[in-house]
Amino acid sequence: MKRYAAFDPPEYVGWASSPGQLRRFRATIEEQPDRRSIAGALAAEDLLALYRGLLRFRLHDIALQRWVKQGVISKAWLGTGEEAVTIGAVHALRREGGAGDVVGPMIRNAGACHEMGMPMTDMLRGYLATSDSPTRGRDLHVGNLRYGIVAPISMIGSLAAVMNGFALGFKQRHEPRVALTWVGDGATKHGEVHEAFNFAAVQRLPIVFVIQNNQVALGTTFRQHHRAPDFSGSGRAYGVPLLEVDGNHVLDVYAACHLAADRCRRGEGPVFVAAETFRMGGHATHDIREARRTFDRSLFEAWGRRDPIGMYEEYLATGPVSLGGGEHDPASREARNRQVLEQIEAAVVDEVEAAAEAALASRRTAMPAPADAEADVYATPCEELRKT
After folding, report:
1. Residue numbers of the domain that contains 105
2. Is residue 367 part of a domain?
3. Element (H, E) at 301
4. Most buried by CB count within 10 Å: which residue of 30, 267, 362, 371?
5. What is the Cα–Cα distance from 270 to 208, expressed in whole angstroms?
């Protein structure tokens, strides 16, 4: 994909894969029979749908960064470098709108929204606080149950208990539906997250908790707030199966979450998925320099070489699957695959640009009126309250 010096982390700007990295990427799936079987069953269009999702997410974040630089918004919370944890998990679910599975994303999992069906324009309008945004200008934490999306909560960790409520409802109604939410490494230190994990385990709820370890909580590094080397022992602590995944490998995340969701549908939930990834920036766009002082430069370089989009792109381009259809010799197939990927990128760029333009148009014509602040505050309309 095209790299943008003004917006991408510097480690991504001149990105290129190495043969060793690509071998390790392929081995991640090949060495695990159950996940290899699931990933191997994906048709070319399924593989490309994952690619589209990764691109949408990265370009959504770039659109927000551009607005920050232009002074349209003051800051943005990004998922750059962590896209695979979101896209792989969502694609493993039954995305059937209000009748399917439900997700509860953190703000750094914004890609879950567009992959569950929410229009990109609505997501961007949320940042602009327009009256035609999902929250009608009240909050940038957007969701919509029509698409199976529970809006994020500013209090980190609180969503875990909320998602338990959805999973409990599915269980009590005997519905083959699954709830999935992401919990950051820092959020696991909140008491309500422990309560949510324990309640889900005791009640055997159909919920997948993706523990998204991006190595830092705000400005506190993982080593400063977690004594164990990783989260591999968390499942044993609650009596819950735990699957470890490479959080920069979209197929590994997809396959593991597919297995986890299947277990939940069989009544064997909950399931933890522990994903190791890295936040390639600051807590938000305002503190990128501080974030880069938090870690040694070599750590950014190491994770930068594992760009989840770049690695997956190389995997698709050089793999045995003919993305454009037809049979080809390896050299012709790679050339055709790269052409298909370039065409998809161009289409996604146009899609995100059109969404950004539509959102900016709403900023000019659809800002909330002052009187709108009284709406949806109470269950009883304000007019009725005034009468009393």
Report:
1. 10-387
2. yes
3. helix 297-304
4. 362
5. 6
